[in-house]
Amino acid sequence: MILAMTGKGGVGKTTLSALVINWLVAQGETPILAVDADSNANLHEALGVDFAATVGGIREDAREQAKSLNGVSKQQFLELRVQESLIERNGYDLIVMGRPEGRGCYCFANNVLRDVLDRLAQNYRHIVIDSEAGLEHISRRTLLSVDKLIMVSDCSVRGIHTTSRISALADEVKLDVKERGLIVNRVPNGELPPIVRREAEATGLHLLATIPLDPNITALDAEGSAFSAIPQDAPAKLAIEAMLEGMFAALEEKH
Ligand SMILES: Nc1ncnc2c1ncn2[C@@H]1O[C@H](COP(=O)(O)OP(=O)(O)OP(=O)(O)O)[C@@H](O)[C@H]1O
Ligand SMILES: [Mg+2]
Question: Against a cut of 0.90, is the pTM above it?
Fold first, then answer.
């Protein structure tokens, strides 16, 4: 399953991506590729790992060396370097995309990279993509094909409106998406206020989960700890688990 978290800034995409990855690892739904597609990379912190290289940096190097490499060896160069840049952890690998665009032309490197990433993706059972805030990655179609496009909103009418815009834009650019769904995050007491619920229903998006505002997350975030340290009975963790269990049950039914 390829799952991407989108939504406006600060709604919880990275936090929820980390919780999803942790759950998949705990279930043995491995190997997983965790993709940090935010140019301001921070999924590694939520997962509690370090990274050294970004795909953007590798592409930059390849562009520098383009003069001395022909097409084939450039592809091999990129492939090797991308492999090397993977941070391997128990059950998952993390890849950090880094800065999307610098100066100069990246068309060739981008095309080669897309092939490299497509091939890489085939080695994994699940891929979880933590994307950048806003709509640009959708309009530029930097997300590859996605099984579940998850639009995350905070508990506000404005947040929900952004998810509608993302969904409409995904249609407009004909993004290759099998299913999409809505998560409302940071909900006080886990209870959606009626006005937010109405707006959420009006989007026509499937409401996958309502994630409570969870002091356990606030505490871990404040001390910079990884979310793997969240207590078993933390309300946000339980809500994510219920959502994923539902998703997997639906998948099983289909097969
Ligand atoms: N369910 C929750 N309960 C309490 N705090 C939360 C919850 N979800 C996220 N947060 C907090 O909200 C803030 C934003 O979360 P996060 O960084 O995951 O959002 P984001 O959408 O990835 O942001 P950005 O757009 O900057 O990438 C963080 O301080 C995080 O700890
Ligand atoms: Mg983030």
Answer: yes
The tokens of 194 are what?
């009626």
Protein residue with its CA nearest to atom 14 in ligand 1: 10
State phi, psi for 69 to the nearest 5 degrees: -110, 145
Cα 66 to the chain's mean position, in Å? 31
* DSSP 8-state class, residue 252: H
Helices 235-254, 13-26: axis angle to 10 degrees equals 60
CB within 8 Å of 169: residues ≥ 6 apart: 135, 138, 139
Nearest ligand to the C-alpha atom of residue 218: 1
Task: Specify the DSSP element, H or E, that contains 185.
Answer: strand 177-187
- Among 82-91, 105-114, 240-249, name the most confident range: 240-249
Domains of the chain are 2-51+90-98+127-254 (3.40.50.300)
- The CA-atom distances, in angstroms, between 204 and each of 182, 210, 233, 246 are 9, 16, 31, 19
Instruction: Answer yes or no: is pLDDT of 252 > 70.
Output: yes
Q: Which residue is associated with the tokens 């990279």?
A: 113
Q: Is 186 helix (H, G, I), strand (E, B) or coil?
A: strand
Closest ligand to residue 15's CA: 1
Q: How many other C-beta atoms can be found within 10 angstroms of the C-beta atom of residue 209?
A: 22
Residues with CB under 6 A from ligand 1: 7, 9-15, 38, 133, 185-186, 211, 213-214, 217-218, 221, 236
- What dihedral do alpha carbons 230, 232, 235, 240 form, nearest 10°? 90
Q: Which atom of ligand 1 is nearest to the CA of 9?
A: 25
